[in-house]
Amino acid sequence: MDCNNIKRFNMGSVKMPSHLIYADDLMIFTKGDILNLLKLNNILKVYMQASGQQINLSKRRFYTPKSTSTDQQARMARALSMNCGSLPFTYLGATLRRGILKKEDCNGLLSHVYKHLSSWYSRTLNQMGRLILIKRVLSSIPLHLIVVQSLPRSIISTLHSLMANFLWGHMDGRAKYHWRNWNFTCQNKNAGGLGIRDLLHMETTYSLKLWWKAQHDQGLWAKLVRAKYMKNGNIKERLPDSPTWKRICRVHSLGTTHMHWTNGQALWDNGQFSLKLAFNATEEKLPVLLSTKFIWHKAQIPKLRFFQWKIFNNCLPFPNNLRRFNLTLPSRYSFCLNNEESLDHCLVNCTESKKMASNNTYSHSINLRYILKSQKLSRENFLDWEKNLRIVLDCERKLYILEIDPPKTPAANARASELTSFKKYEDDARDVKCIIMASMTAELQRLHADMEVRPMVQRLRDLYQGQPQNSDIYVIEVNMSNFTSWVMVTGCGYHICTSMQNLHEVRHLTEGEVQLKVGNGALVNALAVGTYVLSLPSGFLLHLKNCLFVHAINRNIISVSCLDKAGFSINVKDKCLSVFRNDIYYATAKMTNGLYILDLDATVYNVDVKRSKPNSLNLTYLWHCRLGHINEKRISKLRHSGVLDSFDLESYDVCQSCLLGKMTKAPFTGHGERASDVLGLIHSDVCGPINTEARGRFSYFVTFTDDLSRYGYVYLMKHKSECFDKFKEFRNEVEKQLGKSIKTLRSDRGAHTLNRVPSKAVESTPYELWRGTKPNLSYLRIWGCDVYVRRLMTSGKLYSKSDRCKFLGYPKETKGYEFYHSTDNKIFVARNGTFLEKEFLSAISSGREVDLEEIREPQEEISIAVEPERQDLVSRPAQVLPRRSDRMRNPPVRYGFLVSNEGDER
């Protein structure tokens, strides 16, 4: 079509694309005149003959506009040798037709849903399991249609009814009562719903996505839509517009309220457009309920979460709830047989229920208190701890203990109601105090054991919401300090340790030889001095020389001034102190209570250089491994689409499993050099050894092909070493035949056609003197580093696709690298690889050596006949010689060839 051999059709002034390709399907857009169709048919036949591929004749179809007559369609069918298709038809599960979808077009979608439901109804599933199936399966089945098409409202209502009936169950083929309507269950969990995705909201969400793409995307579809419908950059609906464009126009007013421009870039609210943000824009903004925070807490049992939701939404079959369905069923509570069944009586007032709940290890109260027990009170989590405490007390109806003043002690002759009320307050206050004390550390329990509830909570607020003013909190933290942590200070001229476990080269000191003055003015003696070896979380070893062992000090101290003398650099930023040496990161000490603490058991963290966390804490790397080692772009799509929970995308180190299993060839960039005359460029390749020898016992052959004319020669060979002889034979023949000389010979990096040409030292680089331009050094790599190189042949899909080798250098006159394969003991040439230079530098900086086997080429010795001299023999002790390989190493045959400008061989 670009050469005007086939005519494309246009829609007015809009230029249509020539073709679309998806997987193994090809759609071609062209004009329907007979001559044009005959050309297209011939091109398809030539393609099948040249490529060896076949087109499925039974599946190919052509489609015409509605105004095309039957006779015209018949002539087109004869010209194209294919049948004429008719609309509607199904492609990838979606029905394609003119106009909007109709109800009968969605029969396949409904049958798919019925198929799932029929298999699920035969199993015993609780309501939480049904809810998960609805959210993960049923609501996702129609999404591939909603992305590009609008479903009929009757189909959406049918799907909603099927999901609602499945959620609330059925009996004898009839659906049970729906305790809450579908719109309420589709609300967000924080607003009291179940978080099911409403299909109408999903349709609006994908309409917003199409609206955003039509304005800001640079894809083929977006350019076509803008050229046809947005000539002046404005969105306006017209009567003959397509259903998709009308769908975009319906959400235009909603989209403009959330879009704004910043520095010439379109943003959605406060960030980039995503389906999750668009879906939140379609939902009604409802207040967050306090009860939902512990109803759906992860510490709860999944089955219990749904039961708690039913409690708070009056969905249990008690008589007062059944009255909403005009059902009046008199009943007695089966445990005590005294009162009518009600929520308050069953869960709060009934003594028999309390006894059963006290023996139930999975009771409601215990599960809620687990929230507090899982996170002990500390300075950093006080606000979260207090919030969780209020949730637990609110659920147990004891929150008033923290909010009102305690009542006065009633007199002895007070009324019975006053005595009962005061007794209930004392019991509840005792329970609240026990809950608070159980969520504290042992030291905090000791300090607050004699305090009442309200003064205790108020003191905790004073201590942890602001700066601590009492020294006892500091003493507690010092006494509870971890001995694997080190304090980095600038006011001390020595490294100090409190244990001799990792102290090497120890020299014991006499009493009074080295004395240190501490903060209170006292003098303490150093007992020993040596080199302390710290194993840092980054993997490096830090040698603290002249480290003093002082038993009277309970903190390990690293002197910053001593590190500076040893060549280390210190960077303080964002309440963290980072240690570097030669721009290599070693460790980070975080500020805690005004001190920079280096915890050897902590994870690697560096604020100055962005480093990935360990694989166990990096959620991006975790999902990369869980989802079959997919790339970060696909993980980002899953996160934005809501399939994965929201988390921060972080980079991670080189995944060696991906290098072993998914390494691909690097693409050839740029345009190849083409010859402008015959013999200007000759392509050569050697093939063999062939499994089946040709007649004459030939196992190899070499080809020479002219780049311009594609005219080629083939020579059979018995040995690969005959390649150069065949080249001379070919050269003599073609140069005499055409009267021209061969300008360039190009091979596939085969070592059988290369020469080793020595070069002399010059003032500038030989490349610059020969080419007249500066050489490109971007391909240079660190010698000796590890590298993953793709295998040419693999044994199967489940085997490694790359090998770990050593980088040795650069082959002459060949674009690529030389690598050493330690397993096969071979040196080979490859075009590209993944170099682990960062790991190589880290290994050198940490003192780890790189062991390479030195291979010595055998040297010929020239023997000279010399008359032997008499010498006195002196007996020497036997010396054990190192083991040397006795394998003979001979240089390749190609080293002996040298071609001069005259074409002769020397």
TrEMBL record:
The keyword ATP-binding does not apply. Residues 785-840 form the Retroviral polymerase SH3-like domain. The keyword Ubl conjugation does not apply. It holds the Pfam family gag_pre-integrs. One of its GO terms (molecular function) is nucleic acid binding. Residues 486-568 form the Retrovirus-related Pol polyprotein from transposon TNT 1-94-like beta-barrel domain. GO terms for biological process: proteolysis. Residues 594-663 form the GAG-pre-integrase domain. SUPFAM superfamilies: Ribonuclease H-like. Keywords: Hydrolase, Protease. InterPro entries: GAG-pre-integrase_dom, PolX-like_BBD, Retrotran_Ty1/copia-like, RNaseH-like_sf, RNaseH_sf, RVT-Znf, SH3_retrovirus. Residues 273-355 form the Reverse transcriptase zinc-binding domain. This is Integrase catalytic domain-containing protein. It comes from Cuscuta campestris.
